[in-house]
Amino acid sequence: MTEAHKLHRVLRIRDGMAVTVGIVIGAGILRTPGLIAGYLGNGWVILAVWFFGGVVVALSTLVLAEMAAALPEAGGKYVYAREAWGPLMGFVAGWSELLVSRGFSGAVKAVAIAEYIRILVGGRGSVPILAGAVVLGFFLLHTRGLKASTVFQNVTTAIKVLIVVLIAAAGIAAGDFAGFSTPTPQATGATAGLLGFALAYQSISFAYYGWEDAAKMAEEVKDPGRALPRILVGGSLAVMVLYLLMNVAFLAALTPAEMAGSELVARDAIAAVFGEMAGVIVVIASLLILISSANVNFLGLPRVAYGLGRNGLAPRAFTQVDERGTPRNALYFISAWIGILALSGAFELLVRFMMTVAITVDTMVLLGYFRLRARKPDMARPFTMPGHPWLPAVTVALYVGILVILVSTQPALALGAAGMLLAILVAGVVTIRSDEYGRQS
User: Fold this and answer.
1) Cis ω before 382 (30° cut-off from 0)
2) What is the sign of the dihedral through the CA atoms of 112, 114, 115 and 119?
3) What is the spatial distance between Cα 297 and Cα 108, in angstroms, rounded to a whole number?
4) What is the pLDDT of residue 2?
5) What is the pLDDT of residues 299-318, one digit of tens each?
6) Lower Cβ count inside 10 Å, N or C end of the chain?
7) Which residues contact 405 (CB under 8 A, 6 or more apart)?
8) What is the chain's mean pLDDT, rounded?
9) How far is CA 205 from CA 33, 87, 259, 283, 396, in A?
10) What DSSP character marks residue 343?
11) pTM for this one?
12) What does the alpha-carbon distance between residue 313 and residue 293 come to, in Å, rounded to a whole number?
């Protein structure tokens, strides 16, 4: 093995967009529409909140694109937080992503893959054992090197986009748009008002999460100053269009009441208009979508661990790369952590907890845009955020407003997320003050 500062620049714009679309479209759009329909109860409101989520992502992408083009280092948001706020906030950003945001999402996807496999084989087999086998399979794939994993990603992403378009087209063409015309009762009780929006937005933000993952591989992107903004902006816009099409298709075939509580609305929508066999085909298609999405967790997270290790904020062993360009020790750690998490369940609670942590950290990272502009005005910026300073200020204000709603409507969950972030913060203080960090930095 060799030192990890020799990552290879092999990724093109299409590879990066495949990574973006690959990780974003997955468990979120397959699993959360039933939850969201139960929270909101109205077809037009459902579409509006999905669109709002896409707008927030698009604005966030523009802010991040400037930082990514100016700081094309492996690690993504960790790098921007470190450069803007110092190593402690870099530690918080990196480790919250490893342990919560992306680690949890990788486990959720592994469990969902296992559940769909179990459905296809008639309910036989253990979900934890199957999920463990899924994690092991991805680990073995990524030991083959970046080239093999990106080829796999490009192929599965192409299949995924085709599947999504076909499902959307079938639902729109054959449905009667009952979801838009059937009167639905106003949400009441536990999910009324702001709480309903908060719960729905957590699920929608989970569905969009991963829009920035290509930035983690900045040191492996050809011509990053030009390519990264195109990858980030183009990928996020493509996802928003596909998500809106999917939701129109669902609402064309089903009412929100019929969608509510479903674990796989895509299957129910297609089965409603084409029969049960078509529903089985959608289960297989959904399995392919999840495989493509989970693959990017194993592709991007070792690069975050690598970036942390290189700067003394994680074990130095994470900076080792094998002859195939894979941060092997980081891959061991990520695979083991996702495997452990995959043994648990509670999909909805995990998503809500994960996104409360993630939105909090993302607010800090996006605020770093203004910090970098003030501290390093002469930094080379191959891409600049349009509408400065008002548009980035609006973006940050949206995040702050969403956080206020999440905290005020779910105080217990917010307290748990704060506890997790405080633990990471304390670990960061100990790490940064240690003699080992001083020697490495």
Assistant:
1) no
2) positive
3) 11
4) 44
5) 778 877 887 787 777 888 88
6) C
7) 194, 197, 198, 201
8) 83
9) 12, 27, 19, 23, 15
10) T
11) 0.83
12) 28
Q: Which residue has the tokens 């994680």?
A: 314
Residues 177-188 have a mean pLDDT of 66
Q: What is the pLDDT of residues 105-114, one digit of tens each?
A: 888 888 888 8
| Per-range mean pLDDT, top range of 90-104, 335-349, 357-371 | 357-371
Can you tell me the distance from the alpha carbon of 214 to that of 15, in angstroms, rounded to the nearest whole number? 9
Structure tokens at 275: 């029969």
Span 94-102, mean pLDDT? 86
Angle at the Cα of 80 from the Cα atoms of 26 and 243, rounded to 5 degrees? 20
Contact 95, 87 (CB under 8 A): no
Residue 76 to residue 96: CA distance in whole angstroms: 13
CATH code of 124's domain: 1.20.1740.10
Task: List all residues 6 or more positions away from 374 whose beta carbon is below 8 Å from its beta carbon.
Answer: none
Cα separation of 100 and 198, whole Å? 19
Euclidean distance between the first and the last CA atom of the chain, given in angstroms as a whole number: 22
Q: Residue 125's Cα: distance from chain center in Å? A: 28
Residues spanned by the domain of 70? 2-440
The DSSP line for 213-225 is: GGGGBGGGBSSHH
Number of domains in the chain: 1
For residue 75, the 8-state DSSP code is T
% residues pLDDT > 70 (the chain): 87
